[in-house]
Amino acid sequence: MTPSLSRLLSLVLASALLAPPALRADEEDERTVDAVAFAAALAREDPAAAEVLLRVYAARDYRPVWTQGHGLSRQGKALARVLRDAGREGLEAARYWDPTFDAASDRDEAVAGALDLRLTHAFLRYAADVARGRLDPAAVNPYWAQRPPPVDVAALLRQAAESKDVEDTLRGLLPRNPQYAALRGALLRYRAIAEKGGWPALAAPRRPWRQGQRAPDVPALRARLAVEGDLQTSAQGAKASVFDETVAAAVKRFQLRHGLEPSGAVDRQTLAALNVPAAERVRQIELNLERWRWLSSSLQEDRFVLVNIAGFELHAFDGGRDALRMRVVTGNAARTPTPVFGRPMTHVVFRPYWNVPASIAEDEILPAVYRDRGYLRRRNMVLVKGDGGVQLRQRPGPGNALGLVKFLMPNPFGVYLHDTPEDALFARARRDKSHGCVRVERPFELARFVLGGAPEWTPARIRAAMASGGEHHVALPAPLPVFVTYLTAWADEGGVTRFFPDVYEHDAAQHKLLQ
Length: 515
Prior knowledge:
The chain is of the alpha+beta class. The protein folds into four domains: 3-174, no CATH class; 199-276, PGBD-like superfamily/PGBD (Muramoyl-pentapeptide Carboxypeptidase, domain 1), CATH 1.10.101.10; 300-353 and 401-514, L,D-transpeptidase catalytic domain-like; 356-395, no CATH class. Helix content is 39%, strand content 16%. It has 17 helices and 16 strands. It has helices spanning 3-18, 35-42, 47-59, 74-84, 109-132, 153-163, 166-171, 178-195, 218-227, 245-257, 268-274, 278-296, 358-371, 375-378, 443-450, 459-467, 506-514; strands at residues 67-68, 71-72, 303-308, 313-318, 321-331, 341-350, 354-355, 381-386, 389-394, 405-408, 417-418, 432-434, 438-440, 472-485, 489-491, 497-499. The protein has an eight-stranded mixed barrel with strand order 3-4-5-13-11-10-6-14. α3 crosses α5, α4 (74-84) crosses α5 and α5 packs across α6 (153-163). The longest helix is centred in the first third of the chain and has 24 residues, at 109-132.
């Protein structure tokens, strides 16, 4: 017998001794429910939920929460509506809602009592899932270090019962970030597309479709591009079999929305993205709504930075507004993936030294030195003595691997944000090219954002600090939350939904666990 089950059984026995006797039917306003027997049965599959349920009813003297007389109370009907609509949040309604919740109200006392208990169990499950997600993120991948804090579902249940507004209580658990609401809207849109049959798969051409070609399959391509709004419906008819500039522009829009090189030609990767079924896009949105729930309780500040590994983007939010967006380079998917975590940014370092990690020194730099004795001199690198022996260090300057500024958020992974002299990487669609840290496209703009609470750090002073002098540490006026996460579906303002390749295969792992 597990310790949790043992504790529950002890509580069941104690509650059974203290439980008030069942009341007669003519004392309906004071009736009780048999929470002891229900919790004992529930303990076999979910001992934690059974213990919470029993404590909640014991505190209420075993009076019902959701039923009145032989039917549902106003609160009970409201809860049933929320559970029935769980699919709007990307959750499976059948996990919480049962058709008998909406059945006719001519139940006897025992049936009403059982209904009350089942609704309470459904409330506890739904509240926990909405507040912190269905899965433990660590189960998805060991590099996923975000941990939603525990939620007191018993307190939420008491709050719902006392406030007399269960819908408002549960609505307050949803992520507040506008991106979640936008993605939820995208879910409804893509579900509607899928319910209408989605879009047909396009046959693979013998060679990539390009502007100027005439082919019998171009009308099908036009129709496919029109479904998601990349091609205006009015542009479908004229010269339907010609791959004209209008179709090429629509293909580019599609490619940009899917993290592909915007060539305007339908190559193998673009065709594969076009042929992903609508139902698969629905599932992808649902997985990402779950990830926003993992983040929800952490996103309490109005100002924060969010790095989306899958989209290779950084977003700086201010007052709920996406105030700054830029491209980033993240860790290589096969060898050095960037971990998913959240930590406050504490310092900006202008013109930093780069203390070369031992693994990079051994695997990359020493072989280069053996081939070229002038390598260290040209790279402005020196050997210095440290506490642990000799350390390879690169001096500050434009050629420094960290660029002219880095942004520190102390964490166990040694990951930080930084500038880079390799600007050409930002022109690529797929940018998992780093050793794990995050390279930012526009470090000056990011420095302005993070130092926004320090008026003495004017744009001119920031530029001067990046242009000359030695290493200079600047403490932020207040820690700035930074969340490095992984989102393969993103809804922009204006209703445009973007999908990104699952480069780290987190989608696949999460879907398997949910199944």
